[in-house]
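Query protein
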Amino acid sequence: MRAWEVQDAWDIDHLMMVERDAPKAAAGEVVLRMRAASVNYRDLLMVQGLGGVRKLPLVPFSDGAGEVIAVGAGVSRAKIGDRVSPMFFQSWKDGPPDAAKRTKPLGGPLAGVLQEQMAVDADYVSASPKGWSFEEAATLPCAGLTAWRALMVEGGLKAGETVLVQGTGGVSIFALQFAKMRGARVIVTSSSDEKLARAKKLGADEIVNYRTTPDWAKAALDMTGGVGVDHVVEVGGAGTLNQSLEAAKVGGRILVIGVLSGFSQQIAMPVLFGKNLRMIGLSVGSREMFEQMVAAIDAAGMRPVIDRTFAFDQAPDALRCMKGASHFGKICISY
């Protein structure tokens, strides 16, 4: 079977296609014939050696979807032919996060989904939404679930509340869609008027171009009559965090899920404690959260936004597309 490996050095140019032996299903495992993957910013960091993993070679990418082609002894959770996704954390079924539940993420240090077949613990696969293509289903395990957990689990989002979403990448577009599904008001920021127009068509209530309006926090305050927003989906990190604090209402939530503009930032502490804000860091979620998300998606009939799909042998190009940051929604790879 074919697989992609980061081989002798950390870089997109050192991502090489190789032949590997097809896996067999041990007791408690299933073998998946992977059909699609989606690209996350984390995948780019991993391939570039910025994800904290040091051991090479590495099969990258955490998010994929496929079908069960073999079932090991003792497995009752899945059967041959099921369309499923492997969970990002191969160690977190349910409950709140702890150190042990976060030890086995796919795509580093565990081998990721950028291979035609993979054996995984049957306890850590879950069914895809009804009627979704493999490419659509591949968008959910990291990006979709992160947005779901941020707003629905940690945020406890209610109808009528206001959500500020930064940018129009995968997590941000899912946050927009989930927020509208719940009946929330959504403000979207971007540097592109074209992308903001597309966000409007998806249901964004207010839009802000942060190139032409650098003080977007003030704009968000004005849009809420000076009150501020209930939830900020914070994907920028160093370049955006303090404005997120300014944009939030007293008692609001800052849901920190990304570092697109940098890893560290001096925090405006008086704003943080003066507004009694809750700043919550989070990374993906559990299998239980994934299944709750899929049930909500099935009930609402929602579909993801896919910007572009690459062929399996174009995986490096998909990463370069992510690096270029010109996409709207998700970037996928079809096997």
Observations:
- The chain has two domains: 2-139+304-334, 144-281.
- The two ends are 12 Å apart (CA to CA).
- The chain has a mean pLDDT of 94.
